Amino acid sequence: MNFEISPEIYPPEKEKANKETIWEHYFARKIAFLILPFFLKLKISANQVSILSIITGIVGAILIAVGNFWQILLGAILLQIWLILDKTDGFIARYRKSISSFGKFLEELNGAVIAALFFSSIGFAASKFPGFPISLQKIPSIYFVIFGISTSFFVIFRQLIFNYFDAVFSKEEKTKSQTLFGEGFISIFYKTILKFSGIYSLAQPILILAIIFNFLGLYILFYFFLQFLIMLSNIIFLSLKASKL
User: Where are the alpha helices (DSSP H) in the chain?
Assistant: First the structure.
């Protein structure tokens, strides 16, 4: 089968949004498109790929949380595969024109489950292998677990606030996704943060580097403070935005 990345398979609005998360756009999307013919030939449905993606992500997170060095590394690789599969299911659905409400539910469930597990599992891993700098090894291991779980909470809560805002003010022209953050400094700042903060972005490859070069403790601390600041900024910004509507 010969394929081209057509607007039907990869809509321009999705391409524009995914460019803000770099790793998803330039890595996962390209690999997903390469393996798309394989799934189509096997007649595997988009929903089956979604379920496979969820299972892969959960197994990866478990390996990171409870494994030794090599199992943690394998878990991080499985999370890369999760991200690729997460892109593939959408390609299949759009190619076959089989988009369904259940498929959309699986997509949201997939993101929510991994958002809950991603940083939490890294917190458990960092509690065993805090790594560089040496001063982090003096921190009680339970703290890294708390940092990891809290970071996942920040990610989920931020998204819940955003979804609630969207549900309440979705009819307002000013709240549409393309105009919500405008085109000025706030927009540039927000898009820059997205490139580093989320589970679809550079947090993925940086995790592999953190495992290989032994700085998991520093990694989870960095994302703990980053996600907290992003969550707080989101709440303040959306509250101010809502007060003016």
Answer: 12-18, 23, 29-41, 46-66, 69-96, 101-128, 141-169, 177-180, 185-197, 203-212, 216-243
Distance CA 176, CA 155 (A): 21
Cβ pair 119, 220 in contact under 8 A: yes
pLDDT digits (tens, 9 = 90+) for 53-75: 999 999 999 999 999 999 999 99
Q: How far apart are CA 53 and CA 48, in angstroms?
A: 8
The set of residues, in sequence order, having a beta carbon less than 8 Å from that of 71 and lying 6+ positions away, is 63, 64
What token pair was written down for 1? 């089968």
As a whole number of angstroms, the distance between CA 221 and CA 216 comes to: 9
The candidate with the shortest Cα–Cα distance to 159, out of 243, 238, 61, 76, is 238
Q: What is the set of domains in the chain, with CATH numbers?
A: 12-243 (1.20.120.1760)
Q: What is the pTM of this model?
A: 0.86
Nearest-10 Cα torsion for 116, 117, 119, 125: 150
